[in-house]
Amino acid sequence: MNYKLGRVPSRHDARSLTLAPYLDGLRLPAAPPARNWARSVNAPPSWGMFANDVLGTCSCASIAHLFAAQAANTGNRLAIGDADVVALYERVGHYDPTRPETDQGAQMLDVLRALREVGMAGQRISAFAAIEVQNRWQLEIAVNLFGGVYVGADLPVSVRHQLIWDVAGPGQYDLSYVPNSWGPHAMALLGYDQRNVTLISHGEIRVATLAWYRSYVTEAWALIDPLWVDQGLAPSGFRLQQLRSDLVDIHRGARSH
Amino acid sequence: MRHLVLVALISCAAPKHADRPTIDCTAADQGKLATLLSALTQALAGGGWLAVEQQAIAAGVTYGGCALADMVQGYLSPEAGRAAPSLTDGHIARDTLERFRAERANGAVFHLLEGDL
Q: Is the pTM of this model over 0.80?
């Protein structure tokens, strides 16, 4: 199996909303010790590669995985195909199928903005917010409330031969553990417990230790997705419409500055 | 003496591959766990989370911790269509588990079918 990557590290943009002050201000609900949205009985039998074996589509393919998980957990039907993912990639990554040299990956921040403005497969997001990647509490809250998190990692080569992605054990260190020794990669993070996180990468479920997450994940985003929010009670057991409108208002304020 | 103290501090600060201990709840007597979980549920109804914590402590690290972790997990992740607990109750529940973990279980994680809680 061929695996391509395709994340370009997001530039810093001071206008990007961060989740932290909002969480602190509203005292959002405690998350359970474990949550795994990939375990839904309605989860797709295959999460799908979305062309990430031949193109650097990971920044767009992982959105398809997040949407698929949200659809599975809300009982909605959502059809996303390779063509939808590649179309988004063409838009945000400036990929031109007639010019293979333009397959250079895409920034997650650009993907998020495109999702808010035009969407993918008819699905748009209302807002998005950055998560402090080293803050496990924020990660748990975001996964629990929003059904997953969009993460970017500086992938090491070591994961190619690990069943559970982990940092080097005592005396095990070699150059395969160097961050980005494989390259930057975007994934959907759909679950956590007190030892591991659950990721979807290249269409497959991957388990990584929290130490791995802390060592290699460099950006994380929560998506406010109508598919998840616009129902009486989100699968996490909360009514999120007010949260959604507040975040959209904050976004508008941030964009106007 | 100063040298000894300095050596001790350096040792504590040295990086280590810290792996939290695991308590395997799936290997424990499931009948006992179910009975204890039922007792904790009754304690919650009668005396709140403080009473739950007291009973969990009395039951020891393995059974008390496993039942408490299972109870908090269920409390904070209600079945589809059911509302989650209030903000305050939810935080108290999670804090109760984390206090037990830190003070009684040496930071251990509790391995259940739902994951490592």
A: yes
